[in-house]
Amino acid sequence: KTLKMKIKPHPIQKWPERTPLDVIKSISHHLKDKSVCDIGCGAGDLLYEIRRTGLSNNIVGVELQYKFIQMIEKVGSTDRDYIIRNDFTKIDIPKADVYLIWIDESDFNNNHKCDDCHDIILGGLPNSIIVDLSNDPSESHLKKMEEKLYLIEKIDYDYNEEKYGLEGPPWSKPYDVKQYPLIGTRKTRIYEKRND
Q1: Which of 9, 79, 80 is nearest to 42 (CA)?
Q2: Distance between CA atoms of 147 and 109, rounded to whole angstroms?
């Protein structure tokens, strides 16, 4: 008798809806044994991978959009209990040593309806490391980040999402491979918040 096991897909959220998971290798020196909060965590794949690779078990994500929670439910995953479904502008952001953010100004305006989201998000954080995963940030975003934080590192990292396949879940939109190549190089910036 053969026992067939249902294998839960990893990741749940496919590129380009999330940051490539290969970023974790490039920022692991900031994550090891630290508490990590992902603000705008989507389906929580980055946090899942951080925990799976043994970098940190102290993880939490905040996500407003219900579509990501629906993705988790559709695949029957029960291992995403670290996600808080809420608007980060309306709650106390969980305390952490490291924050991952991939929220640009259009997201601030469209989803969170605030003009001062940078102040809300950065003002509410303790002294910490902030990993800005925005690949192509606006000049305005960079200026606001650098007004409030110390830039400590710029990283270019290679990624390869082909290992996860081109086919997303049946309910997902098809990939535009020309606009979002599955192999490439991305940028990230590491900041430090210090109250000095």
Answers
A1: 80
A2: 20
- Report which secondary-structure segment, H or E, holds 117: helix 117-123
Helix (H) / strand (E) containing 153: strand 150-160
pLDDT digits (tens, 9 = 90+) for 153-195: 999 999 998 877 655 555 566 666 677 788 899 999 999 998 7
Average pLDDT over residues 137-155: 91
Q: Please, what's the b/e burial string for 73-89 (b: 16 or more CB within 10 A of its CB; e: otherwise)?
A: eeeebeebebbeeeebb
Distance of CA 151 to the CA centre of its chain: 19
pTM: 0.87
- What is each CA distance from 140 to 25, 100, 144, 155, 194, in whole angstroms? 28, 19, 6, 20, 21
Residue 150 backbone phi and psi in degrees, to 5: -95, 125
User: Which tokens in the block code for residue 116?
Assistant: 């001062």
Q: Tokens 């999402």, residue? A: 161
Locate 2 and state its tokens: 């053969």
